[in-house]
């Protein structure tokens, strides 16, 4: 009976720490997302957003190492380290999806599409679009307007959620391998 209680307590502790780390990483991702949006007006915010996004991956690994060393006595298997990392990114992804939903539902009001259209209307961007995609920029603008006009904010958030879950799983495998310690 004590064995089951012990493993149950360990699981609760495991998930609690993953939720806390996920909340920290999720807040970083939301800030990074808002930097991306701000990048449309102030290009330096794009660099800040990218730096925050990259640092969030490093911080997640550092938090896993801290959990391993302080809570688990310096030992964690590859599977547990990977699962912890996946759970952390899963919780971060949920927070990020909520942030994106709130943004697209209540704040954006077409801002992102309008900024993209303005950018596609500039001569140098129009030339690049024609060269890269082989498409007239006016056609691309029409497609963008038609597509973005039909996608609901919840669908946008769900698409990002799906992508972030997949990326979180992919990132978790090497992090789990690096953080495992027997």
Automatic annotation (TrEMBL):
Residue stretches spanning the membrane: 20-39, 45-62, 83-104, 156-179
Highest taxon of source: Bacteria
Keywords of the record: Membrane, Transmembrane, Transmembrane helix
InterPro entries hit by this protein: DUF4199 (IPR025250)
Protein name: DUF4199 domain-containing protein
Pfam families registered for this protein in UniProt: DUF4199
Entry annotated with the keyword Disulfide bond: no
């Amino acid at each position: 009976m004590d064995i089951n209680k012990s493993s149950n307590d360990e699981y609760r502790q495991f998930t609690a720490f993953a939720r806390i780390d996920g909340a920290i990483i999720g807040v970083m991702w939301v800030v990074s997302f808002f930097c991306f949006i701000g990048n449309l007006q102030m290009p330096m915010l794009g660099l800040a957003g990218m730096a925050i996004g990259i640092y969030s991956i490093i911080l997640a690994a550092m938090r896993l190492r801290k959990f391993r060393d302080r809570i688990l006595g310096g030992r964690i298997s590859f599977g547990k380290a990977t699962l912890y990392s996946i759970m952390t990114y899963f919780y971060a992804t949920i927070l990020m999806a909520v942030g994106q939903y709130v943004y697209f539902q209540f704040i954006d009001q077409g801002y992102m599409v309008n900024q993209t259209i303005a950018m596609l209307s500039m001569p140098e961007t129009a030339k690049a679009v024609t060269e890269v995609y082989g498409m007239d920029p006016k056609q691309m603008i029409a497609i963008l307007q038609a597509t973005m006009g039909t996608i609901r904010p919840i669908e946008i958030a769900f698409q990002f959620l799906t992508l972030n879950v997949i990326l979180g799983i992919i990132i978790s495998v090497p992090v789990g391998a690096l953080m495992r310690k027997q």
